[in-house]
Amino acid sequence: MPDVQSMVLEFVNKLRKRKIEGSQATARCTVELLRSVISHHRVPHHANQASALIDAVKAVGAQLVAANPVELAVGNVVRRVLHIIREEDLSLATAAVAGLDLLDASDDDEDVNGKGIGYTAMSAAVVAAAARSTLRPPSLQTLLEGTPESATVPYTSSSGADSESKTADKSSITRKLKHDVIEGVNQLIHEIAGCHEQIAEQAIEHIHQNEVILTLGSSRTVLEFLCAAKEKKRSFRVFVAEGAPRYQGHLLAKELVARGLQTTVITDSAVFAMISRVNMVIIGAHAVMANGGVIGPVGVNMAALAAKKHAVPFVVLAGSHKLCPLYPHNPEVLLNELRSPSELLDFGEFSDCLDFGSGSGSPLLQVVNPTFDYVPPSLVSLFITDTGGHIPSYMYRLIADYYSADDLVM
Amino acid sequence: MDARRGPLAVPKVRRVGFFTSIEPSQDSPRPNRSLSGPAEAITTSSSPLSDSPSGQFISPVQIPPLRHRSDNLAAASRAAAPVPVPVPGPSAFRRQLASDRALHVGSYNPVDSLLGTSPPSSNGEVSEDSGSLFGFQRSDSAKLSASFPNGGFDMTMRVRAPQESEAKVVIASTSDGRKKNVEPSGTSEPVAATKPRKEKEQKSLKEKTSKAERRAIQEAQRAAKAAAKGEGSKRAGESSRAKPSKTAKQTQPKKDVPQVTSSLSEKRTVSVEKERRMDVPQAQMQYDDKSRVDKAKRRSVVEQTESKNKVELFLHLPQYERGNQLPNLSSNIFTLDTIHHAVYKVGLQHLAGDLSGDNARCIAMLHAFQEAINDYTTPPMKDLTMDLTGKINGYVSFLIECRPLSMSMGNAIRFLKNQIRKLPVDLSEPEAKASLCSEIGRFIDEKIILADKVIVQHAVTKIRDGEVLLTYGFSCVVEMILLYAHEIGRKFRVVVVDSRPNLEGQKLLRRLVARGLDCTYTHINAVSYIMGEVTRVFLGASSIFSNGTLYSKVGTACVAMVANAFSVPVIVCCEAYKFHERVLLDSICSNELGDPDAIANVPLRTNTKHAKTMDNNKNLQFLNLMYDSTPAEYISMIVTDYGMIPPTSIPVIVREYRREDLLL
């Protein structure tokens, strides 16, 4: 499958060169790539379907994540796909077990429940364990029961079923699994594409008449959210911080105005001055960490602090693909990215300053231009995801629904 | 008339007598001046009118005008020109004529011409004589003027008010009424005939307003005293037409005498009260107050067009379009005579945004004032204190039109006005000017330059080796501190945080790097990224209010807040002359709006036309705030010329030191 390989390489290059901007676009590209990886994946006949697929996806995922470790959406989506594979596999297995159970239920019921000695009972028990391990949230018990088994379970179960019942055709199961996984991935694509609408639907619950809303950075989610409230005949005013070195606030303001919202563009430095007249701060996240912390466009932390100081609600909009199952450590530095100094300083104007230190080795002038900012969970009032509103301390639980514990470390 | 008398509120006005001379009729202001102590004396001496040696003392005697009018009616009619501003030292007679004529014609600048009349009237002997003999007449005339509704008092009050031009308007409007009253006397109708009427008026006045009465009495008193003094020197028994009033005079003085002291002391308390009132900071102009804005607009030199797309939240601040009026203004820099060219230049620099930094703006303004004062000559018959204050007020309102004043400039202006007010009376005009200029120079040296040096000395003790200092924007004090610390060999690193649209930090960065300091440059959004490695934050200030609120370049509050969140000490460096006794809670109520286009224009080459195309959409506004206020809780320490203090000590400094420095 050279075509898939080339696609992967191309995408990796794009990621590495930061050609794709925005976590949503990245997520969509990633998931589409993974879909083609899965659909082109040719499984050896006697091999374990699911584990083979997982391995393939993991391999590609590792490449993608390495290409842009800061873009957490890539990792999130890879984990989601892995999770889908496991789930589909499990549901297939449980379906098979259920079939067996139905067959066996007539003669030896207690064997299945208790410690049976028959093949069927054995496999059913293993499947049950596997089902527990995958369906359950990560817990001490699942860890103790042994996660590596879960990958091998389907194999034993399928082979057991195969050898025992002779009804299940290996190729049909393979096709079934792949088909189901691709269905699941398609659903994920759909979900990622539709997360704006899902979030925007809740706008009406949060924005009332005559509200003054501050936002910063350019986020499609925020745009849709505000416009949804506007369509419901709520009239309110939006302050947009321009987002200095990249001026994405100007883009957002332009689109808001095009949709008929009262928009005022302010400088980033005026955030503190204006916050006292603002009713709500709404921002779009770049990523939401498992502890409830938010990685957002640079300057967000300042706005969050100011909002906290003035007791203004700080609301973060995040599609589910932005929920990252990792706990951050020193995210300001480790999950950040420094952009070109030319956005801040005109090299032409400052050429005389820039090479001042060249003689002594270390340059005198350094320019820091980070892309992201980390907001600790204590400053966030509310997350609005496509599944509804959540508080920061609940995010870990929400995240557990989307990912399986085995994939946290890739 | 009675109805109009109300607002006269005479007693509040110091030296009112001076302005009563507007009454063409007769009474002179002079007497009061010479009487009322040093403050007034100076005015006479400095005025070019002092050409007549006796002028200072004699001037009081105002009766002569009547004579002139009646006598020289013919002469008046042929008087060459209605010269409103007499040449210093022409023949008194001629001036008299001119003013006379002006009175009749009714088209004049009343202040000038009328004031012009007074000294000639003093015509040496005549006046003195009449003064001594006919004290009553003088008082009478004072009353007369008081009884004239828009007469001198009202006007003087206006003149004291900051807007000189407004005063002129009022005066112009008064001219009518005055003319009416004057006419009879002018037409050589027997003075005696007018007298009774006046007396009647005076009486009715007495009955009605005790204040006015008291004032009139006092006036009379002064006149009498002055005249008595003058008498000593010269005396010519003349004043045939003053005689009729003799009787009247004789009736009055006895009653007046005992009151002198009380009225004087009262006056003093009034003036003290007034000073106190002046200390209270003026309420800022609210630009959503339609009538006041219209009024201001009528006076304005700079024709600002209001921007179409105003931000609703800031309607109380001026929101004008920028840059369109600069060319015309700069073209008539030397043709404009109401504003001194040095002041005009500073104003245009403000308008164009060439001057930035509070100290720079303040110093530029003070230098311009210095120049203006140097070139200033008191118009004849005018009092230097009053006229110069009026002039300065005119300049200040021009500067405000160009750009709202910073708090420190307001403080400096207050200082200057106080200096003018407190000029010793016995100074001649050149001396007064020299003393004012040197006072201004002292202010600049002591309050700004020396203060900065002291601050540097203090602040440098807070910089240790290996520290990482963060500063925001450009503050000249902070720059001095950093350079000095580098000079004395401290090893530290500087983080310069900058923000759009001014990008002043680049200026600082350039200077620091040129001197070999280790610098890191970043923008304000990244401040929480960089704050982790910072050990101290140094901030400049535009002003500090007495509730400890720091009023400074927009963004300062953000930096201080983030520093506070990271537990980094925030040190504010501010000269004490920038302290202000106002209080401020947020950045909305008092602020300044910059050019919105500066925000609309994005320097990025790739997507420059972001919002530019949407310019005319009424839904899209650009808000360019210039200042913000940092709550005191974010400030660890304020370094000022009085030492290093916590923000809670600001009101103490304002109260204890400001009074002594600026007001005494």
TrEMBL record, chain A:
Residues 141-162 have a biased composition (Polar residues). Pfam families: IF-2B. One of its GO terms (molecular function) is guanyl-nucleotide exchange factor activity. SUPFAM superfamilies: NagB/RpiA/CoA transferase-like. GO terms for cellular component: eukaryotic translation initiation factor 2B complex. Residues 141-172 are annotated as: Disordered. Belongs to the eIF-2B alpha/beta/delta subunits family. This is Translation initiation factor eIF2B subunit beta. The lineage of its organism: Eukaryota, Viridiplantae, Streptophyta, Embryophyta, Tracheophyta.
Automatic annotation (TrEMBL), chain B:
Residues 19-92, 107-303 are annotated as: Disordered. InterPro entries: IF-2B-related, IF_2B-like_C, NagB/RpiA_transferase-like. Residues 196-217, 231-241, 265-279 have a biased composition (Basic and acidic residues). Transmembrane segments: none annotated. Residues 22-35, 115-125, 138-148 have a biased composition (Polar residues). It holds the Pfam family IF-2B. This is Translation initiation factor eIF2B subunit delta. It comes from Raphanus sativus. The lineage of its organism: Eukaryota, Viridiplantae, Streptophyta, Embryophyta, Tracheophyta. The gene is LOC130507247.
